[in-house]
Amino acid sequence: MNGENSTIQEIKAELRTRMAQVRGGISAEQHRDFSRLACGQAVSWLKQGNMRSMLIYVSFRSELDTKPLIEEAWQTGIEVYVPRCRREDCSMSLHSLKDWDELKTGSYGILEPDQEHSPAVPEECIPEAVFVPGIAFDMAGGRLGYGGGYYDRLYERFSVQGGHGKLPVWAGIGFGTQVVEQVPMEKTDARLQVLITEQDVYEFKEAEDGTDAF
Question: Deepest of 13, 43, 47, 208, by most Cβ within 10 A of its Cβ?
């Protein structure tokens, strides 16, 4: 993918394929143990920041298992919101989650809130932290998603709605093996402020170009 005709989209596609294999190669034992360690790091980070609400995805396939983080948040009184994908416009609605029974299989085969049990919260509701999934991350706040742009659109929405107030902290959570030297980023790609793995919590003050990471 080093040819002059390669586009950033082609580079992203190649990296997605390669990193999906890397993540898929994590053993079941390591997947369980590393997920719990990363979730423990995330809980400590939330507590240190006195955060009382978060948006978190429900893990799918080889993604880091977020269930320990969700259950710990319930136990400590942190409000949990999970997203529901709207495929017609690649946007997401947010739903309060208080029990696993409130989920059902939705878009892309992912567990999502059942609207009959957990209707969407008002769009003015902005959580204090947003945990975003990713296939690859870097140490400049770069994140490679799955190509749908759902979280980038949510970032834009929050930026408009919360422009007069405090915006949520944009945090990635994943395995240490998902960290690469550099993720190809476009202007519309939202950069992370924080990356959490089983190894540590990394905070990014500025992007590589000198601008704020969030």
Answer: 43
- At 106, which amino acid appears? G
- Distances in Å between the Cα of 10 and the Cα atoms of 64, 84, 134, 139 are 25, 28, 17, 22
pTM value is 0.90
Question: What residues form DSSP beta bridges with 201?
Answer: 196
Let me know: does 149 contact 12? Beta carbons within 8 Å.
no
Largest CA distance in the chain: 53
Q: pLDDT tens, 89-148?
A: 989 999 999 999 999 998 788 999 999 889 999 988 999 999 999 999 999 999 999 999
Residues forming a β-bridge with 86? 91
How far is the first Cα of the chain from the last one, in angstroms, to the nearest whole number?
A: 29
